[in-house]
Amino acid sequence: METKSATSVERSQQLFDRAKELFPGGVNSPVRAFKSVGGTPLFMKKGNGSSIWDEDGNEYTDFCCSWGPLILGHNHPNVYQKIVETLQNGASFGTPTQLENELGELILSKNPFIDKIRFVSSGTEAVMSAIRLARGYTGRDKIVKFEGCYHGHCDSLLVKAGSGLATLGTSSSEGVPESFANETIVLPLNDNEALHNCLNEHAKEIACIIIEPIPANNGLLLQELDFLKELRKQCTAHGILLFFDEVISGFRVAFAGAAEYYQIQPDLVTYGKIIGGGLPVGAYGASKEIMGHVAPEGGVYQAGTLSGNPVAMAAGIAQLSECAKDGFYEDQEARTKAFIEPINHYAKEKGYDFEMVQIGSIFWLNFDGKKTIRAAAQINPDMNKFKILFHSLLQKGVYLGPSGYEVGFVSQAHTPEILEKAGKKIMQALDEVYAAI
After folding, report:
1. Are residues 45 and 54 in contact, defined by beta-carbon separation less than 8 angstroms?
2. Cβ of 432: how many Cβ atoms within 10 Å?
3. What is the set of active-site residues?
4. Residue 175: band (very low, low, confident or very high) from pLDDT cuts 50, 70, 90
């Protein structure tokens, strides 16, 4: 079926034509190119509250939220004011600032799972640095990751699974030496047998097991709690660090992330741009003992000229101060459930094989709704239904991330009234999807 939107995107098309002469594929991050859904990538001009506007003046209710960090919505007045006040004193110094202390204290005072934190400039940088720390702390080289979990674009984690339950990684990106990938073992999610087989063979070589405790980069692959608890048990038994990559789930499902939500103590944690109000920030944290191995205290080197950037720190203080208020996460989850439940009820009544999967204020559109999906291999790779839905919603003024594998986010700015209107549009779009197939 033709999925081109009838909404005028003339200005976006002009900008994309120019961008293709400037950047690989016309974008500075691959998913933005709309290759998964077809059509012209939308160039956004502004955002406010729950809405974004493209360069052609079209308004959309935004469920991408800059891929999660904008938990308060676009252009929140407190975040905006704090950025402006800080910027008036300068954008960067390359020195310590009081704002670093303030944000660090705010995070650590409400996060019992880590004692110290180190700010960096992206989630990828945080993961890369924490992997180095795990290896330096344990004196071991190998790491274990899980198929379907994304941990940024650092070389040792750009791997995919081969045959068998536990296999040494094979590079899934050109430019990554196989020798790097060979230090990474890839396991299927939610599979205790595969975990035990791997540890029986490799436990003494493994520095850490890294997992998104709420895998949200390849569908929303909610894990059984017993599997996460088994990871903790086995890591403790074998002297392996349990590494929670909370770049998406941190400060999103609870202030202290999935560790708080599930009450599981990780040894290493990474966080992403939600701690910077959407500005480029990341962080990693652990116990005092483990973090004591990071330079300049210890021998694990990591540095960053713009780490702790004052403008990003200020935005983080403003945003996380709101998130730390009593009832914030309960309200987020309640509004998200109230948004999703009528859609799922409607789909069930209509006999559509569709379900919106949700945890906290994260959701995912599952077009195989009769099946609980806990691993990437269980997802139907045919994304035609999502393509139809995506373009139908664009015409109705609703923006999702342009891939059926991506999750959506509800922000504080998505009021019950806004969510109800968007929900009705999703129901209408579902009718179009299932009428077309």
Report:
1. yes
2. 16
3. 150, 245, 273
4. confident
- 71 CB contacts (<8 Å, ≥6 apart)? 65, 251, 252, 274, 319, 323, 332, 361, 409, 411, 412
The yes-or-no verdict on residue 166 having pLDDT over 60 is: no
Q: Classify 165 as helix, strand or coil.
A: coil
* Residues 160, 282: Cα–Cα separation, whole Å: 25
pLDDT digits (tens, 9 = 90+) for 212-233: 999 998 899 999 999 999 999 9
Q: H helices of 365-409, where? A: 384-396
Q: Please give the Cα distance from 392 to 3 (Å, whole number).
A: 8
For the chain, residues classed under CATH 3.90.1150.10 are 10-75+327-436
- Chain centroid offset of residue 44 CA: 20
* Prediction pTM value: 0.94
Q: Which residues lie closer than 8 Å to 289 by C-beta, 6 or more apart?
A: none
Question: For residues 134 and 139, what is the distance between their CA atoms, to the nearest angstrom?
Answer: 8
pLDDT of 377: 84
Q: Which CATH number fits domain 10-75+327-436: 3.40.47.10, 3.40.50.410, 3.90.1150.10, 3.40.50.300?
A: 3.90.1150.10
The residue with greater pLDDT, 377 or 279, is 279
Residue 343 CA: distances (Å) to CA of 83, 133, 293, 350 = 38, 44, 49, 11
Strand positions, DSSP E, 199-354: 206-211, 241-246, 268-271, 282-286
Check the CA dihedral 171-174-179-183 and report its sign.
Answer: negative
Q: Does domain 77-323 have CATH number 2.40.50.690?
A: no
Q: For the chain, give the number of residues.
A: 437
Residue-wise pLDDT for 6-54, tens only, equals 679 999 999 999 999 999 999 999 899 999 999 999 999 999 999 999 9
Q: Are 314 and 278 in contact (CB under 8 A)?
A: no
Q: What is the mean pLDDT of residues 372-386?
A: 90
- Helix, strand, coil % in the chain, rounded to nearest 5: 40, 15, 40
Domain span(s) for CATH 3.40.640.10 in the chain: 77-323
pLDDT in the model for residue 17 = 97
Rounded CA gap, 428 and 433, in Å? 9
